[in-house]
Amino acid sequence: MNELKQELRQLRSGALQAAIASPDPASPIEESLSAGPWHFTVGDTITIVCARLPQYMLDQIPYTDVDDPDYIELLTYSELDSLFELQGHVRAANPTKHVYRRVAGELEPDDYHTHLAVLGGVDWNAVTRTTLEKLQLPVRQVAEWGKEGAQYFEVDENGTTAQYRPAVKAQGGRQVLSEDVALYARAVSPYNRKRTVTICSGMYGRGTYGVVRALTDRNFRDRNAEYLRSRFSGSDTYCILSRVPIIHGATLTPDWTVGDNILFEWAR
User: Fold this and answer.
1) Would 180 disulfide with which of 29, 159, 207, 242, CB 3.0-4.6 Å?
2) pTM exceeds 0.85
3) Within 10 Å of residue 123's Cβ, how many Cβ atoms?
4) Three-state DSSP class for 106?
5) Residues 214, 37: Cα–Cα separation, whole Å
6) Of 176, 192, 242, 239, whose CA–CA distance to 37 is shortest?
7) What residues contact residue 173 under an 8 Å CB cut-off, 6+ apart?
8) What is the spatial distance between Cα 42 and Cα 54, in angstroms, rounded to a whole number?
9) In this structure, are residues 216 and 37 in contact, taking their beta carbons and an 8 Å threshold?
C-alpha cells in the first residue's frame, strides 16, 4: 500500500508540473474577449455610465417610483439595451475586475478615476457632454429635440464642416427610423491619464446599441477590433462615426470593414 501511495504521489506531482509547463490553450471565445478593446490590462474597475430617463417619461412607466414596493431601478435608466449588452461582455472580458453601473450626475469622485464606458448622447447624459468637451474631438453632437432639423453629428475636417443625420421616413402615418448615426470614441481619460474613457453615442438609442454591438457581437467583434488595431494602433485617442442600419425594426451591427459604414474617422 505504501509503495502504491508513493507511486500515485509521484505521478500526480509529474502531472502538475507538466500542466504548469504547458497550460491549456485559451478557447477561441477567451481569445476573442481578451483581444478586444473591452479587455483592460491595467486597473481593477470599469464603470458604465448611463443617463436617468427624464421625469416626464418616468411618470409613464410603472415601478419607477422609488417609494413603490415593486420599484425597479433599472427601469429608470436610458440605453437599457446597450447597458445589458455591454455589462455582460465587459464582465466576461475582465473576469477578475469590478464592473459597476452608474447614473450620470450621481457618480462618486472615485468613479471618474476608473475606466469609463459612457452610453448615450449629450442631451440626457451629462458625462457624455462634459467628456466630449474635454477631449476636443473634431466631432460635435447636436441634439436639440425641440428644434426641427437640429439633430445631427457635425464633423470638422480639412477646414470644412459636414453634418451627418439619421434617416427617418414617414411610414403608416408616423416617423420610422431606418438608419442611425453613432459615435465610438476611445481616449485617455481626462480624469485619470492611466485609465481610458470610451463613448458610445447615437442620435437615438438604436445607434448607441448598434455601436456597442460593433465590438460585442460574436459575428463582428473580432473583425471590427482588428479594424481598430489596423487603423489606430499608434494612437491613444481616436473616434469613428458609423452608420447603424435598422431593418424591419431590427438594429443591425455595423461592419466597419465595409467602407460605406464609416462616415468619418480620426486619430490624434
Assistant:
1) 207
2) yes
3) 19
4) coil
5) 11
6) 239
7) none
8) 35
9) no
Q: Which of 102, 104, 123, 103 is nearest to 46 (CA)?
A: 102
DSSP letter (8 states) at residue 70: T
Nearest partner of 124 among 183, 204, 184, judged by Cα: 204
Angle value at C-alpha 34, between 30 and 39, nearest 5 degrees: 135
Residues 149-168 have pLDDT tens digits of: 899 999 998 889 999 999 99
CA 136 to centroid of chain Cα atoms:
20
Question: C-alpha dihedral over 251, 253, 258, 260, to 10 degrees?
Answer: 30
Give the torsion sign (CA, 77, 165, 198, 159).
negative
Give the residue carrying C-alpha cell 453629428.
Answer: 153
Positive/negative CA dihedral, 252, 221, 91, 212? negative
Whole-number Å distance between alpha carbons of 202 and 215: 15
Amino acid symbol at 25: P
d(CA 221, CA 217): 5
Q: Do the Cβ atoms of 79 and 209 come closer than 8 Å? A: yes
Q: How far is CA 24 from the centre of its chain?
A: 30
